[in-house]
Amino acid sequence: MNLIGLGARGCKLVEHFRQYNEYKIYKIDFDLVGLKKDGIFCFPEVTTVEECESKFPSMSNFFKNATGRTILFTSGADILCASALRVLETIKVRNTITVVYIKPDTILSDPATKLIDNAAFNVFQQYARSGAFENLYLISEEKLFDAVGDVAIANFESSASGLVASVFHIINVMNNSQPIYDNYSKRVDIARISTIGMSSIEENMENLLFPLDFCSEKSYYYLIPKKILDTDQKLMQKILTQVKNNIKKDKIKIGFGVYETEYEEPYVYVTCSSSIIQGIEL
């Protein structure tokens, strides 16, 4: 799988995936040190969205070996986000594309960032709904801050990007693993606007990384240590009760899978998807 980090935040995020062997990493930003053959592309300095277009360099050779599933990570807080569609245009013929968009905190954003964010947030969703993207994952900077919790300021950005990378990696691994038990069914094809999050077995709570409106389906990934799988005779009923209660409460399609894990404690991850454009007053 190819992972593209576009802009400073996207590059920091994809760097966390280097510890895993499943991914080919590409980074695009200003002042990067490294070679193109190693997935490093130093973008020309720009100060405006217009320059992102006029100074956009050819990337055909840079991406010549990028085929298959590709995920682009970018944030509206980075001006290079404005080049995202040009980057994806280079590889779209050979790749199935997913975009992960980190939406900046609009209260703290300056006017230029707000313009970039508004354009990216809306255009990415239109592309996802049209089927040009396999999926669009939205992450709210505010929700991400809440999920990271108490951490030293010096470690905050690393903790935030590490959390996103960890959840995406786990969900990707589970999607390519055989569950011990599941009730998954074919996804709603037009529900391509999504988010990710964490949940819990003991506490019926969810911590989604974007406040997704009009969710039409959810998937839960229950990662359970082998010792608990072998000894907890009430676990299955507990999971089924939780899933059924969520179906009744949310009145949506919910699938789940139970997976054996080497973690010492159980973990639950969730994806939530919608077919409705977000951020529009109805």
Task: Please render the helix and strand layout as text.
Elements: E1 2-6, H1 7-15, E2 24-29, E3 40-42, H2 49-54, E4 68-75, H3 84-91, E5 95-103, H4 111-130, E6 135-140, H5 141-148, H6 153-175, E7 181-182, E8 193-199, E9 206-208, E10 217-225, H7 226-231, H8 235-250, E11 253-261, E12 267-274
Parallel strand pairs: 1-2, 1-4, 2-3, 4-5, 5-6, 6-8, 10-11
Antiparallel strand pairs: 7-11, 8-9, 8-12, 10-12
Model description:
Helix content is 34%, strand content 27%. The chain has 282 residues and is of the alpha/beta class. The protein has 2 domains: 2-172, Tubulin/FtsZ, GTPase domain (Rossmann fold, 3-Layer(aba) Sandwich), CATH 3.40.50; 188-274, 60s Ribosomal Protein L30, Chain: A (2-Layer Sandwich), CATH 3.30.1330. Strands 1, 2, 3, 4, 5, 6, 7, 8, 9, 10, 11 and 12 form a 12-stranded mixed β-sheet that branches. The longest helix is centred in the middle third of the chain and has 23 residues, at 153-175. The protein starts with a strand and ends in an 8-residue tail after the last strand. The model has no long low-confidence stretch (mean pLDDT 93).
Quick structural gist:
The chain has 282 residues and is α/β, with parallel strands linked by helices.
Strand-and-helix sequence, N→C?
EHEEHEHEHEHHEEEEHHEE
Which blocks of ≥5 consecutive residues have pLDDT under 50? none
Most strands sheet: 12 strands, mixed
Helix count, DSSP H or I runs of 4 or more residues: 8
Q: What is the CATH homologous superfamily assignment of the largest domain?
A: Tubulin/FtsZ, GTPase domain
Q: What proportion of the residues is helical, as a percent range?
A: 25-40%
Task: Specify the CATH architecture of the largest domain.
Answer: 3-Layer(aba) Sandwich
* CA-based shape: globular
Radius of gyration, in angstroms, nearest whole number: 19 Å
Average pLDDT works out at 93
CATH topology of the largest domain: Rossmann fold
